[in-house]
Write a structure and sequence with these properties.
This protein is mainly β. It has one helix and 24 strands.
Length: 366
C-alpha cells in the first residue's frame, strides 16, 4: 500500500511539472507602452527664390512720335532763274514753311538748320532757257536716308520766293505753311496748319490734322481737314461756275463775304456759319450732322430755303412764306421763300442740330 501511494505521488508530481512547462508564466505587471504620436502631414512644398525685378513703367498715353531721319544740320540758300509762270513742286518732311510771290523771275530757297537740297529743272523755256517747272528735293549727293519722306526738304525754317505769276505744289508730313501772292496753290499735309492768301487762280488745301485759313482767293477752291477748323474770307469765282467746297469732320466752318455761286459746306461734327448773300442761278448746300447751321443774310435777300432738320429746331428772323412743310422719318422738311423767293434754292440740313437764319446787323450767331 505504501509502495502504491508513493507511485501515485510521483505520477502527480510529474503531471504538475509538465503543466508548468507547457503553460508559460505570466510576466509581472508592466506599465502600458507609451503610444506613439500620430504622424503630422506636411505638404511637399518647394520654396522658389526669385530675384526681385523693378516695376514696369506706366504705359504712355501720348501718341507715338515719328522718328524723323536726321537733318544735315546746315543752312543753305540757292537761286535758279525761272520763267514768270514757273511751277514749283516740293515735299517737306518738317519745318515752318513760308512761300511768297515776288516780281523777280527767279526761285530762291533758303533752308535754316536743315537738309541740303538741290533744284531739278524738269522743263525750260526754249527761248529764254529759264525753268518753267522746278522740283526741289534733298541733295542726291548726300548719304541716303531711310523713310518715306527722307528725300524731302526739312529744317527749322524754309523760305521760298518765287514769281507771283507762278504755281506752287507742295506735299508734306508735318509742317506749318503760309502762302502769299502766287497765282495758284495746291497744299497737302498730314498734319499742320495752313494759311493762304492772295491767290487769284485757284486753291486746293488739305490737312489731316490742323486748321485752314483762306483769304482773298479766287477760282476753283477746295478746303479740307479731318480734325480742325476752316475759316474763309473774301472768296470769289474767277470763271463762271467755279465751285467752293469746304469739308471738315471734327471742326467748325466759317465763311464770310463769299462770291461763289456754287457752294458746298459740310461739317460732320461741328457748326457751319455763313455770312453773305445768295446770287441768282446759284447752288448752295450747307450741312452738319451734329452741329448748328447759321446763315446771316442781308435784309434784301431773295431766295428759296429748304431746311431739313431732325432733333433740333428751325428759326428765322426773316418773314418767311411757307410753301411746304412735311414730316419725314426722324425729322421735318420746311420749304419757304425769303423776300420775293425768286432766287436760288438754298439747301440746309442737320441731323441733330439747329438751323438759324438771321438778318445781318441784328445780332451775331452764338
Amino acid at each position: 500500500m505504501v509502495e502504491m501511494a508513493n507511485r501515485l505521488l510521483q505520477i502527480g508530481l510529474v503531471l504538475c511539472l509538465a503543466t508548468v512547462v507547457a503553460c508559460p508564466q505570466k510576466k509581472k505587471d508592466e506599465p502600458p507602452p507609451t503610444p506613439k504620436p500620430a504622424p503630422t502631414w506636411k505638404p511637399d512644398v518647394k520654396v522658389k527664390v526669385q530675384t526681385p525685378t523693378p516695376p514696369r513703367a506706366p504705359r504712355s498715353t501720348s501718341p507715338p512720335v515719328y522718328k524723323e531721319a536726321p537733318y544735315d544740320g546746315v543752312t543753305t540758300e540757292k537761286v535758279i532763274p525761272a520763267d514768270p509762270g514757273v511751277k514749283v513742286q516740293l515735299c517737306v518732311s518738317n519745318g515752318d514753311v513760308k512761300i511768297n510771290g515776288s516780281e523777280k523771275n527767279e526761285v530762291r530757297v533758303f533752308v535754316r538748320n536743315g537738309r541740303k537740297f538741290e533744284f531739278s529743272a524738269y522743263e525750260k523755256n526754249p527761248d529764254t532757257g529759264k525753268a518753267v517747272w522746278v522740283q526741289l528735293a534733298r541733295a542726291t549727293a548726300e548719304k541716303p536716308l531711310a523713310g518715306q519722306a527722307s528725300n524731302c526738304l526739312a529744317g527749322d525754317s524754309i523760305e521760298i520766293d518765287m514769281p507771283s505769276r507762278g504755281e506752287i505744289v507742295m506735299s508734306g508730313r508735318s509742317a506749318t505753311v503760309a502762302v502769299d501772292t502766287v497765282t495758284k496753290a495746291t497744299i497737302k499735309l498730314l498734319e499742320g496748319d495752313v494759311s493762304v492768301r492772295n491767290i487769284p487762280g485757284g486753291l486746293f488745301a488739305r490737312t489731316e490734322q490742323g486748321d485752314l485759313n483762306a483769304e482773298s482767293i479766287a477760282g476753283d477752291i477746295g478746303l479740307e481737314t479731318t480734325t480742325g477748323n476752316i475759316v474763309a474770307f473774301d472768296l470769289k469765282s474767277a470763271r463762271p461756275g467755279d465751285p467752293l467746297r469746304v469739308t471738315t469732320i471734327r471742326g467748325t466752318i466759317s465763311l464770310q463775304n463769299i462770291g461763289h455761286r456754287q457752294i458746298e459746306a459740310n461739317a460732320t461734327s461741328g457748326s457751319v456759319k455763313y455770312v453773305g448773300t445768295f446770287v441768282g442761278g446759284g447752288n448752295y448746300k450747307f450741312r452738319s450732322a451734329s452741329g448748328r447751321i447759321g446763315l446771316m443774310l442781308p435784309t434784301d435777300v431773295n431766295c428759296m430755303v429748304s431746311a431739313s432738320y431732325g432733333y433740333g429746331n428751325f428759326d428765322s428772323s426773316f418773314p418767311m412764306k411757307i410753301v411746304t412743310e412735311n414730316l419725314i422719318p426722324g425729322g421735318k422738311v420746311v420749304v419757304g421763300e425769303l423776300g420775293t423767293g425768286k432766287g436760288p434754292v438754298v439747301n440746309v440740313s442737320t441731323t441733330s442740330g439747329s438751323i438759324r437764319i438771321w438778318k445781318q446787323g441784328e445780332v451775331d450767331l452764338p
